[in-house]
């Protein structure tokens, strides 16, 4: 029996991220554990290390477990970190096989091509993982294993065992998303039928959208111990019929949980009654891509929504007392007036949870090439491409001023006394203190950006 380490790295210290206000379970690694092929189980012992919660140094894990294989998962911001860890692993023992999976390698595998990384699990991660271990057991060459992985077609059936949530039992109480605490993740569909120009999500499945059956989803849901459920579909509100059926089953089966989902504003605006039904069976929050309060931006992003639709969606969620976590993109030509207009719109509509993202053309998206000439951060400094750093030259103000405007807007919207009083009434003091500590850390990162530029 040899050890296989499954590692989720901690983000780089320079990455500004939501890590201070949310830590979600590494679902993709849990899927690997539950789907290890039976004939491989007597040979490989899987160990999951979540470096977001485990501060032990990699070198100590290597000494303790003496693994034969180490597999990383990560986003674009992890590329350099994973390369550095892989180098450290090879220096420790050059016979350890290193591999990378996760959403970034699925879209931009070339980013992980590195002398210290042996295998790229870039397509059908779970199948590729088993191919890797099967290949190693059969003494297949690394190149032979990679060839087998590369030759796969995209598997859209998703006939896998539910994730193993026992493997990280020690960490589970610490997984949360803002006020959803503790919180478990579930994925019911893959990709998105829409094609917003800036979006990375639909690139992961090569533009395809596919779903798990609701029977399968519900059977997994019933086994989850946490009451707070974060449905991490790129867009859960795709089909009215599917959402309706999901609500019906929850009602019939008397499943008593709270849900946080991603959904589009146009679906919400067109389905007010359905959203009320969803609220009645536990819908607590929707992350909505509002994206902009300027029509021209929505058009240029191919968002297929309008400011009016966004306003209708927010009004519906507010009337239902369902939290609206809105994401907003600030392009290069954002002026002081645009920041003010955005603030007034957010105050007018009652949107209090905002994720303000300076426009970030991620590698692998449709808009990447259009903006190369505007880059002020090198794409190789991946830790800064976190959708919070300013990576493009602002047109009407300095980079420092742009950071200042973002930081100010966060404070004016999220920290408004009216909003804070509402939060304390709704969630109590302790969760609010936790959020305050987390948001202060994010705030400090912005302040450093304002000082250092
Ligand atoms: S932004 Fe949302 S709606 Fe648009 S393609 Fe991405 S997931 Fe789909």
From TrEMBL:
It holds the Pfam family Radical_SAM. Its cofactor is [4Fe-4S] cluster. InterPro entries: BchE-like (IPR051198), Cobalamin-bd (IPR006158), Elp3/MiaA/NifB-like_rSAM (IPR006638), Methyltransferase_Class_B (IPR034466), rSAM (IPR007197), rSAM_horseshoe (IPR023404), rSAM_sf (IPR058240). Transmembrane segments: none annotated. Residues 178-395 form the Radical SAM core domain. The keyword Nucleus does not apply. Keywords: Iron, Iron-sulfur, Metal-binding, Methyltransferase, S-adenosyl-L-methionine, Transferase. SUPFAM superfamilies: Radical SAM enzymes (SSF102114). SMART domains: Elp3 (SM00729). PANTHER family: ANAEROBIC MAGNESIUM-PROTOPORPHYRIN IX MONOMETHYL ESTER CYCLASE-RELATED, BLL1977 PROTEIN. This is Radical SAM protein. It comes from Fusibacter ferrireducens. The lineage of its organism: Bacteria, Bacillati, Bacillota, Clostridia, Eubacteriales.
């Amino acid at each position: 029996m040899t050890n296989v380490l499954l590692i989720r790295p901690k983000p780089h210290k320079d990455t500004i991220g939501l890590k201070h206000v949310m830590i979600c379970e590494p679902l993709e690694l849990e899927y690997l554990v539950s789907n290890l092929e039976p004939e491989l189980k007597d040979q490989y012992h899987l160990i999951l290390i979540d470096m977001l919660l485990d501060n032990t140094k990699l070198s100590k894990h290597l000494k303790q477990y003496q693994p034969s294989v180490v597999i990383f998962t990560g986003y674009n911001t992890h590329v350099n970190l994973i390369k550095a860890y892989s180098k450290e692993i090879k220096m420790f023992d050059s016979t350890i096989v290193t591999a990378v999976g996760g959403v970034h390698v699925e879209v931009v595998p070339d980013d992980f091509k590195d002398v210290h990384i042996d295998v790229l699990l870039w397509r059908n991660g779970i199948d590729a993982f088993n191919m890797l271990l099967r290949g190693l057991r059969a003494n297949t060459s690394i190149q032979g294993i990679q060839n087998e992985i590369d030759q796969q077609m995209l598997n859209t059936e998703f006939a896998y065992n539910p994730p193993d949530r026992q493997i990280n039992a020690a960490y589970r109480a610490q997984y949360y998303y803002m006020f959803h605490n503790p919180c478990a993740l579930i994925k019911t569909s893959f990709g998105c039928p829409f094609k917003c120009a800036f979006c990375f999500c639909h690139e992961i499945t090569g533009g395809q959208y596919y779903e798990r059956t609701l029977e399968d989803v519900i059977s997994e849901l019933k086994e989850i111990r946490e009451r707070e459920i974060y449905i991490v579909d790129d867009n859960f509100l795709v089909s009215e019929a599917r959402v309706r059926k999901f609500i019906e089953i929850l009602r019939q089966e008397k499943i008593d949980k709270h849900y946080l989902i991603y959904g589009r504003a146009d679906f919400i605006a067109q389905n007010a009654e359905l959203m009320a039904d969803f609220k009645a069976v536990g819908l607590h929050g929707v992350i909505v891509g509002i994206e902009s309060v300027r029509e021209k931006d929505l058009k240029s992003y191919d968002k297929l929504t309008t400011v009016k639709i966004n306003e209708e969606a927010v009004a519906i969620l507010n009337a239902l007392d369902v939290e609206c976590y809105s994401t907003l993109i600030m392009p290069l030509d954002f002026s002081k007036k645009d920041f003010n207009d955005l603030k007034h719109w957010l105050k007018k509509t009652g949107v209090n949870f905002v994720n303000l993202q300076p426009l970030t053309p991620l590698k692998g998206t449709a808009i990447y090439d259009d903006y190369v000439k505007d880059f002020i951060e090198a794409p190789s400094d991946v830790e800064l491409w976190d959708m919070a750093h300013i990576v493009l030259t602002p047109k009407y103000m300095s980079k420092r001023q742009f950071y200042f405007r973002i930081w100010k807007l966060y404070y004016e919207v999220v920290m408004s006394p009216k909003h804070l009083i509402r939060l304390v009434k709704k969630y109590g003091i302790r969760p609010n203190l936790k959020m305050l500590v987390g948001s202060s850390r994010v705030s400090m990162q912005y302040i450093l950006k304002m000082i250092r530029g």
